[in-house]
Structure formats: structure tokens, C-alpha cells
Amino acid sequence: MNPQPLILRVAIEAPLADSFDYLPSLDPPPLPWQPGLRLLVPFGRGERVGVLLALTDHTSHPLDRLKRVVRVLDPEPLFAAADLKLLTWAATYYQQPIGAALFAALPARLRDPEPLTPDTLPGLHATAAGHALALDTLSRAPKQRALLAALQAAPEGMTLAALTAQLGELGGAVRALRTKGLIAETRLAAAVDPSEHQPPATGPTLHAEQQAAVSAIAANLDAFGVFLLDGVTGSGKTEVYIRLIEQVIAQGRQALVIVPEIGLTPQLRARFRTRVSGPIAVLHSALNTRERERNWLRAARGEAHLILGTRSAVLAPIPRLGLIMVDEEHDDSLKQQDGLRYSGRDLAIRRAQLVGCPVVLGSATPALETLRNAQLGRYQWLRLTERAGGAQPPQISLLDIRNQPLRAGLSPVLREHMQAELRAGHQILLFLNRRGYAPVLTCHACGWVGECPHCDARLTLHLSERRLWCHHCGWSCRQPERCPACQDEDVRMLGRGTERLEDELIALFPETRIARLDRDSTRRQGALGRVLDAVHTGETQILLGTQMLAKGHDFPNVTLVGILELDHTLYASDFRAAERTAQLIIQVAGRAGRAEHRGRVVLQTRHPEHPLLQSLLHAGYTGFAEAALRERAEAELPPYSHLALARAEAPDPAQALDFLRQARACGEALAGEIPAEIISGIQLLGPIPAPMERRAGRYRAQLLIQCAERPRLQRFLAHWLRAVRTLPRRNGLRWSLDVDPRDL
Ligand code: ADP
Ligand code: ZN
Ligand code: ZN
């Protein structure tokens, strides 16, 4: 009698393969074999981490060739069945091996055979003697006194990290108090944050539209449904999320909020902290690996009530998930641009469907595909048309700057407005979407222009560093004193970035306090917080910056927003350029006038007659979106068709194009092999060189695959990729497929 063998199907991060079969380890595992367990398995000549996907009794390999699992890594499965279902779906949809999806979901440390980080941190607590001691006894040792005071106020103790954050370096105070027997070491639950134990603050009374939105969603908490929360900036969308989160937590379930870039919005995090009861797990890439892992485990173990994170949080295991919210659902940073190229929003919708819970997409400027789904009734469309607290919407006007004498890029009219607002004690926001000092450095004698040696791109001068930087590949060199070509000294800086604008504004408004918000000015730890604080306290009078300004910040005293230059994006080639520009204008405009003062937005342009600007001005974002959707329909572009983009890059110029030509031929050759109904309706467009053909020393090309129906495109891709993967590849060629690409 031969008992059925137990075969373990395991996902490993390895190209091309879906899963691998293994036999159980000889040592019995600490618990029954369960999908979701992390395992160490032999692979090639070494060992790899894998995740158990399924138990089965058959394999397509000879049984005696199967290797045994080395050992089980964790005492519990990290993924539940529902998580594995989502990740399997994502892998299939984005045409990646399942290992790629699982490893995108795992925190970095757990992709290696590391044990789980213990859920405790070193800390201190006051002993009975320490609690009894009158603090005045320590008046001659202020640090000891402060430390003991903090611990007396925290009966469970505090982590060393929290103490240092509160008191600064502790120095010898710890040892001194310990020697006196007043405090002792302890270990504390890692993520315990004092605010978790505070009762949440109460929020404002909801206005009617908010109430209607909350009721509509709350009435459907037990079933899948997609809700578009289409609310102008400042209309109180976040408040709606908070009320729903309260209800979900009260039911004993977990809520997930996905935001585009959490590092940029410390205010949002702070707001959830004060309003939501219980543990919050924050997940984003700026955390250190252990913090991230701890928070991830708190989500996975069901401990965190709220998971607040960037796109990858949509992949985290959340066993009691009851509600998903995607804030700024239109934002491109919700899309992962390498590896598993997923859309955080689209996966959120799929996840809600698998779990059977609602998902809320919030935006003041919904993506055109989202609006289309709302129009078709697939999403329930909830509108917040007015600003909360009675604030007036900003008034947008176009300013024709042709033939205007500009100073610091500002027209006379805008300068007058600025003077008036400054006199009234208000704040001003200036938007210029280009960082650095000058985008072009050129020689007046011979015409030399500073270009990146590795990209088809110009170098940007960063004057404070005296360096030229390539914003595409990160290459840099020292600012030349003379022309590198002809040695002439007349090397000139053309154009303006935020660094230059700041210098010019200081000269133009000498009495005014000016601050800059861009990636350069906020690179240092804590710098972003300082810039934002100075705006909130009113210290900063003029804040200038790049699109970082548009990311959900709330500047209540800003009454004037100047948008300096957007003309170059009006004629960009990417079919999404108009949509992005409109969203950016509305989002930047939305920073103005949130409190009692009405905001004014001045948009400088040399193309005041441009249809995009005209429709935004006269019909708002909704009007713009209707016109833009009509154009998309005529051109059969998304959301009226579906796209996938194959990209290839190689060190030699023709190689990437050649490869994609062969890939295209593979697609055409499928005509006889797979059912005609899959092939018909598939269009292969290209290959063409990428918009910036050479980047980081590699030549890039792309091939577009277009189809009116998503399922057909999916089936075609699966067949086609099987063929493309067998194509011979010359050294150094890399290619990838992007399903639902954002950038063409
Ligand atoms: P959004 O997320 O739509 O930009 P927020 O939820 O951040 O809007 O709300 C904007 C501002 O209005 C915040 O300062 C918020 O505290 C306040 N607010 C929200 N809802 C109300 C309300 N019902 N009554 C008064 N103020 C509110
Ligand atoms: Zn020269
Ligand atoms: Zn470069």
C-alpha cells in the first residue's frame, strides 16, 4: 500500500516559474502544514525563502526528484487564504510569477530567512519606590527628574525610543536612577504609542453631504461596493473616512487607508492618530526595515485597527479587513513602476471584492477611468460640492503673460496681488514645477549645452551645491567655470527652477519670510516638518515649491496661489498629460483660502485660449473631464480601451527595437494558434523608441498592445508572453510588461 504523498507547492522569488513542488521536511513542523507559512527550501545550489501556497497529492515531476523543505521559518502562517487569493490574482493579472507578488507583499527582512522581529522593544518603568518618590528630591538633577516624571506618568513604562524622543539624550540619568532602584528595565509591546490609549478626540458635526456619504457607505459595510467620494478640496473627505473607520473598528474589524505619499503628509497621520482609537500600523518606505516589519506584523496579526500606508499596504495581510479607502485615487504614485507593476487603487478594488467589503475612492479630481465607471453606475457616486466650515471655493483666473515684463517670472499683475496680500498679513503660495536653479546651462560663445552623458536630457544646475545634476539617472558633475567645449567664460544659466525663484523672491520681497518646498529642500530628516510648521504658525509668508505643494497639505491662511509655468505640459505627447495638468491645477488651487478668506488663484500662461484652460476655468474639473472623456472615446484610448506596454532596453541602440519587433512578430504568429476571437481586436502598435530614448546609458523602446476588452487582452497576453519568453536575448537586454501603464 502506497499512501498518498504530501506535496507542498511553494512560491519562491524566481523568474518565470509559478511555483515549485517540495516534500515535507523530515522533522515534523511545529504545527500542521498550512498555506501562508514561510519556509526555507533548497533551490539551485543554495537555499531560498518560499511561501507555502497549497498542499496537494500530485506533482508533474518524478517524486524521487523532489527535494525536501529544509525547515519552517515561523511559528504561524503570515498570509491567510484570502491574502494568497489576492496575491495570486495580482500575479495573474499583471502577468508576473506568483513569487513576485508574494515577495512584493513581504517586508524586506522577511524575504531573507530571518526570524520575525520580536514584538517588543527595550524600555523602562518606574519601580514602586520610583512611583513613591517625590520629584522635588531630584531637583538638582533635572534630567533624572524629567525621566522619572515621565515614567511616573506612564504606569506601563515607556520605550527608550519614546523617552529619547520626548526628553532628548538621556545620558547618565538612566544609570543613576537604576542604581537608586527607582526605575528598572522592561520590554514593551513595540508599537505601543501613548496616543493609542487616549480616547479619540471628537470631530465636527458632519454637514449634510458628508452625512449622506457616511450613511450610504455605512449601510453597505457588509458587502462589496465601490464608492467614489468626489469632493472638492477641503470638503471634508477625510472626516468621512474617519467616521467610517470608527464604525468598522466598533464592529471589531480593521480598516485600510491607502494614500499616495505618506512621507509628505505628516499632518494626515497626526490627524488619524488623534481621532482613531487603538493601534494604527503605518506602512511606508521611509520607515526603517524593523519598524516596517513590526507594523506589518501588527496588521497581519489583526492587532492594528487601522492600517495607513502607501500603495504596498494593499498587499499586506489584514485578516479582519472591513473597509478600504484610497485617498487621492487619481494620483500616479499609487502605481508601482517596477517588479509587480500594480495599481494600488485597482488592487484595492479587487481586494474589497474578494473580501466582500466596501472600498471608497476619494478625490477632488477623480481619474477619468474612475469617473467613467461612476457614470456607468458601476461605482456609487457620492459628491461633496461645498467646502466644510463654510470656506469659499478659490477663484481661478488666467493671466496672459505674453509681452509682459516679468520679474522673477512674475507678471506685474501677480506682483501687485502679492503686495496686497502681504500687506493684509496673508500667505502666498507660488507653484513652479521644476526644482534646481536653472534647467539649462549654455555657452554664449559656442552654443554648448550641458547634457547628461548617459541620457537624452539636459543637466540642471543646482547652484547651492555648485553641481549639475541629471534628474533622470542621478548622474552629476561639478559646475564648470568655463565652457567645457571652447573654454569661454561666458557660460549662462537659462530658465528657472525653484532654487532660483527663491533667490529672486528674496531680492524682490526683501522684508518677507520665504520658504521653499521641494525634494531638495526637504531631503534632510525633519526638514519637511519644519517647513510645514513655519507655514502653519504664520512665520512663512511666501511658500514656493513644486508639485509637493499639491499633496494634500492644508494651508488655511493662504489667500493667493500663483501658478507660474504650466505651458510646457499643455502640449506634451502623453495622452494623459491634459488630465494630469488639470488635476495639478485644481489640486494646487485647492490649497488656497480654506478658512475665512476666499482664495484667489492666478495661472500665468502664454496660451490663455487653450481649450484645457478654458474648460477648467468655465466648467471646472467636471466640465474638463467630460470634454476629455469625449476625446478619449473618439481616439479609443482608456477608459474606452485597455492597454499593456512592453518595454525593452539595452546598451546598444538597435537592440531594444529589434527585440520588440520579434515580440511583435510572435504576437502576429499567434493568429493561427489561438482562437480567433482572442486575436481579433488586439492591436499591436510599434515598436517605437521611448520618449526619452537613452536613459542611464541604455536605449529604450516600447510596444503598445491595445484591446477594447480587458478579458480578451488578458488572454492574449498570457499566450503571447509564453512565446516572447522563449525569444533569444542578447546580453544586457531587459524587457518587461506593464499592464494598465500610466506612462507611455
Ligand atoms: P478633504 O479631505 O476633503 O480635503 P478635510 O476632511 O481635510 O477635507 O476637511 C477640511 C477641513 O475642514 C479640515 O480642517 C477639517 O477639520 C474641516 N472639517 C471637515 N468636516 C467639517 C465639518 N463638518 N464641520 C467643520 N469643519 C469640518
Ligand atoms: Zn563654448
Ligand atoms: Zn542622466
TrEMBL record:
Domain Helicase ATP-binding, residue spans: 218-384
GO cellular component, as recorded: primosome complex
PROSITE patterns linked: HELICASE_ATP_BIND_1
Enzyme class, UniProt record, top EC level: isomerase
One protein family per Pfam: PriA_3primeBD
Positions contributing to Zn(2+) 1 binding: C443, C446, C483, C486
Reaction(s) catalysed by this chain's protein: Couples ATP hydrolysis with the unwinding of duplex DNA by translocating in the 3'-5' direction; ATP + H2O = ADP + phosphate + H(+)
Single Gene Ontology BP annotation: DNA recombination
Cofactor: binding details: Binds 2 zinc ions per subunit.
GO MF annotations, alphabetized: 3'-5' DNA helicase activity; ATP binding; ATP hydrolysis activity; DNA binding; zinc ion binding
Keywords: ATP-binding, DNA replication, DNA-binding, Helicase, Hydrolase, Isomerase, Metal-binding, Nucleotide-binding, Primosome, Zinc
Cofactors demanded by this protein: Zn(2+)
Positions that bind Zn(2+) 2: C452, C455, C470, C473
Domain of life where this protein originates: Bacteria
Family that this chain belongs to: Belongs to the helicase family. PriA subfamily.
Known partners and oligomeric status: Component of the replication restart primosome.
Biological role: Initiates the restart of stalled replication forks, which reloads the replicative helicase on sites other than the origin of replication. Recognizes and binds to abandoned replication forks and remodels them to uncover a helicase loading site. Promotes assembly of the primosome at these replication forks.
PANTHER family in UniProt: PRIMOSOMAL PROTEIN N
Protein name: Replication restart protein PriA
Organism the protein comes from: Allochromatium warmingii
High-level lineage: Bacteria, Pseudomonadati, Pseudomonadota, Gammaproteobacteria, Chromatiales
Name of the gene: priA
